Write the structure tokens for this entry.
Amino acid sequence: MKKRSQKKLIIGFIVFLLSIVVISGIVIINDESFKRFFITSTMTSKSHKYWARLLYSDEVIEEVMKGNYVEEVEEKVHLEDIVIGKEYNKVENKSKYEKEILTKDKENDLYKIIRIETKKFKGYLTVVYDPSDIELVVSSNLGKKGESVNNLVKNNNGIVGINGGGFEDYSGFENGSLPYGAIIKDAKVIWKGLSGSGELIGFTKENKLYFSKSTPEVAIKEGMVKAIEFGPLLIVNGKASKVHGDGGWGIAPRTAIAQRQDGIVLFLVIEGRLPGYSLGADMNDLIDILLKYGAYNAANLDGGASSTMSIRGKLVNKPSAGGKYGGRMVSNAWIITNKNNKKVTE
């Protein structure tokens, strides 16, 4: 069953890439635009790196990857700039994006879902009004087997959830068992992977989104109580990272997490690898969306087929693979709980 599923996944990805070639009118692999798209999209996927090596030499791949990268803002997060609840209910004289954020759905003080649609991609933005309602959850069999975001939401009394960090892939068909880098939960290091993949992304005990390039032990001393390791960072203290080329991550399904200065947290999931419906986003696209909605700090999370949003144990988005099984298995997820008993529609 695994081999059949893997074959379908590979064939689907090939069809996706060939569709882009046809749509764009690109018929030769030496075209610079196609070269950049193909190499960055395949080299940052978990299962399809070998496709880049079928068409291009290691030297060409290295050259393209060197020219496409994200130059992060080299600043520590200014936690004092985040004032949770500041000007929370004032919507007059605001932009349409601010009004979308601050105008709650009827009978729902917990969260709001905003549909994102452009000519290039579609997705969903979850607005989390109180950051204290956010929890980091991990697979019950961490290190052995992952769980879908659907199950992580259901099994942890969550309401909405998105995937978090990445995981190792030794078999070519992931089961989400071995997380990249470190995981901090309840101010303790519960996982320390063999290979890190960026910076620690998580929350302090004051429920403020925080980033750290230190060891997890140091990050805990700095006040971090829950975090996963991934990246790149997209926005720090209101300043956008500089994206060279497409950032080296290609165009793909994406997941990101952000926080505004008023403490509101944003979960962003972009659908992709679905020709005719949604191609996917690059790092610049994520930054543009999040800035429009007032993000002050933001980071990229694991993307590709892992990009998943679930509400009450049901998929909202269309994953590029594994949708009929409830989504790909992952090692951890960010979820919204209602431990503070807020008013929320069923």
About this structure: The first helix runs from residue 2 to 24. The two ends are 36 Å apart (CA to CA).
